[in-house]
Description:
Structural class: mainly beta
Shape: elongated
Strand content: 15-25%
Radius of gyration: 32 Å
Amino acid sequence: MKRNLLFVISMLLSLAAWCADEVTFTANTVEGVTMTFTVLDEANKTCRAGGKYDNLQRAYEGAIDRGTKGKVTIPETAKGYSVTEIGNNAFSGCTGVTEFILPNSTIKLHNHAFSNCTKIVSFIIPENVNILYDGVFSGCTSLQTVTFNAKDIGMTENGTGGVANAFYNCSSLKKLIFGPSVTNFTGKMAFANCEALSEIHISDLKAWCNINWKGGGNNPLYYAKNLYLNGSKITDLVIPATIETISGFAFYGCTALKTVTLRDGVEKVGNAAFAFCDNLTTVNIPASVTSLSGAFVNCPSLNKVNITDVAAWCNLTFNRPTNNPLSEAHHLYLLNKEVKHLKIPNGVTIINNNAFYGCESIEIISLPNSVTQLWNEKSTTSQVGYAFGKITNLSDFYCYALKVPDTHFTFKDTNIDFATLHVPASVIEDYKNTAPWSDFGKIVAYTKDDPNYDPTMDVDDSGSTAISNVNDDAATNQAPVFDLSGRKLDGQPTAKGVYIVNGRKVLRP
């Protein structure tokens, strides 16, 4: 106990000695306000606005008289020293000041630097600021707008990386403006108790999509709910092809969103990028997207996932079933038509983990002979398999594969005991003797007379497709037409080429 007491006394004496060694000086602002500065580094000629630590008061001395009124411009240099920091409590409690102007030389804003400045209504964070310490603007009850022009903004508690209530209890704060230079933004709970916060304004969508948030609670959209692009509120978001990557948490909690459309060219959508978008109903996803897992979690109104390419969707990897937006939407659309009969295109060999989990709109599934696996054992996902899990309305499953495809929890939570499995007659016994295929309620050999039979997926025992010679017969003109990948055309083809009609190749038009 005595040893600990001696250690504390020693530390306090060291702090007192260090504070006593600090050099302070004063200089006038352009408004004629006398301001105190403390030298940080004599060699590099840097200083902070604010006085040294007062041992008796146990607080840092203020930079200006607390009774100062009107506008205060903090200079970029003072007596040859560059002003790089705003000290602890430097301007705290200056209730008469209506506006502070920070110099571009500023790097750090220390604890409670501007707290309880109750008359300031706006503030601009300049380009070189990278840390806002705890409670910098807490209690600034008239503050309405803050503009962030800095590149890398970290809001930490005493520099430890903990929660920082940088704008805590700024009860009038309504609008945040993000300049295009912002690339990193951290500060969990930075906007706690800012009940009026309702608008985030940006001018560059690509810059916004590239910000590293390092967690959903760091994105002020979690509080504001509304994002504005060049002054217009975004409800139907379109991400252009020029934006290849959307960072995790980019639109986290943006409840104003109703639809999201990703243009062909977008490749990666980060984890929780659109999480907690409570009013989001529709997402449009192109074939160019290669990473999507967890992007749309906790979107309770989502009811439509519209894709452009089934094969591309089969290649997506979802870490777990609930990270697939279909697990919330339950309805899959292909080119804006709801998918009742899911046809996996010929040429697909593997259907990735959790690919169609929770898609209740699917009633019939057809797999081509090319499919060998209904899961990906090489994936690093936490829950592998589940490719056709929780498809509650499944009635028929057509599998044209002559070799029984490998599975892993493929039909988890799907009532296949009430569904019919249709397979090649030559290997029907293989399916009957292989779980989970053997769990289907009925297992039958498909026939070419079956209305759901698809010749583009079928093969005979020699491995040849069940498509006959190229032919153009007038009798086929009214029959459904498929392209060579097995996709049914809407009406008759307009471009000359080889198509499939009634199981045969035909030349059209």
